[in-house]
Amino acid sequence: MQLNQALDILKDEGYKYTEKREDILVFFNEQDGYRTASDLLNHLSQKYNGISYDTIYRNLHLFNELNILEQTELDGEKHFRLSCGHHEHHHHFICKSCGKTKAIEACPMNELNLNFNGYFIENHKFEIYGLCPSCH
Asked: Which residues are registered as beta bridge partners of 95?
């Protein structure tokens, strides 16, 4: 997803533009992978003295609800990244060191559905964690 697309989604959904919101989106636009609320707070506190975790989390969850950001959990902590823009169903490999991701085009549910005859599966999540070539 591009920065302008994200700002358009905010506007189209009736949320007002603020410089902080744009700076949050710029931060994720410049990152290559998942980042934490702490990463974002450290970045924004250089410009916004006294910015709180509450402000950070409120905006992160708004952007996640609007599908501007994707969210995952690594080692018990939520991590976010700009939506990768894939419109088709897919999953990710996530580097546990740098947070970079690589799309996984195959879905294991195609095989697993055979074992769930009679069950109604509403949703699923599949991620692989490890080290990317740069971090290995």
From this structure: 130
Q: Is the pLDDT of residue 85 over 80?
A: no
Burial per residue of 98-116, b for 16 or more beta-carbon CB atoms within 10 angstroms, e otherwise: ebbbeeeeeeeeeeeeeee
Q: Using one digit for the tens of pLDDT, what is the confidence trace for 65-83?
A: 998 998 988 888 999 998 8
82, 104, 119: which is the final residue of a domain? 82
Output the known binding site for Zn(2+).
95, 98, 132, 135
Binding-site annotation: residue ranges: 89, 95, 98, 124, 132, 135
Query: Are 77 and 33 contained in the same domain?
Result: yes
